[in-house]
Amino acid sequence: MSSRLAVARPAPPVLDLLEVSEHTMVVGERLVVLRAEGWSRNWRAESNPYRSADGSWRIRALPEAAWYVLKETGLIPGEVRVEDVPVAYALVEMIRRPGGLF
User: Fold this and answer.
1) 3 Cβ contact partners less than 8 Å away, ≥ 6 residues apart
2) Is 77 in contact with 71 (CB distance < 8 Å)?
3) What span, in angstroms and rounded, lies between the C-alpha atoms of 75 and 61?
4) In which band, very low, low, confident or very high, does the pLDDT at 100 lie, cut at 50, 70 and 90?
5) Distances in Å between the alpha carbon of 19 and those of 22, 24, 25, 60?
6) Of residues 95, 5, 76, 84, the one with CA closest to residue 47
7) Are 26 and 92 contacting, i.e. CB atoms less than 8 angstroms apart?
8) Contact, 27 vs 82, CB < 8 A?
9) CA-based diameter of the chain, in Å?
10) Which of 11, 31, 68, 99 has its CA 20 to 30 A from that of 37?
11) 41 neighbors 32 (Cβ within 8 angstroms)
């Protein structure tokens, strides 16, 4: 006979996808980016939204693994291309905890 106690596990957090606006501070946040092949996860924001030369709002994003290299070494790996993404094509991943906002 087992003497294990039953422990109630809390509900898992919910992952929300929030639109980015020109006023959103997102450097370092996890992103879902719309690419030619569809929505793609595992990106990090390398910049906050900025107005490009053509007047559109954009954000620079890079693959998540490259983000950690950048934070550790201050350098973006040579084989990685920073993506210049229209703000409308980027969503921020936010964890919503049960009973609270974020």
Assistant:
1) none
2) no
3) 14
4) low
5) 10, 9, 12, 15
6) 84
7) yes
8) no
9) 71
10) 68
11) yes
pLDDT at residue 19 in the model:
92
* Cβ contacts of 47 within 8 Å, gap of 6 or more: 27, 59, 60
44-64: pLDDT as tens digits: 999 999 999 999 999 999 999
- Residue 3 pLDDT greater than 80, yes or no: no
Residue 71: which H helix or E strand, with range?
A: helix 64-73
End-to-end CA distance of the chain: 42
- Band of pLDDT at residue 97, cut at 50, 70 and 90: confident
Q: Which residue has the higher pLDDT, 5 or 57?
A: 57
Lookup result for tokens 């954009």:
58
| Cβ atoms of residues 1 and 8 within 8 Å | no
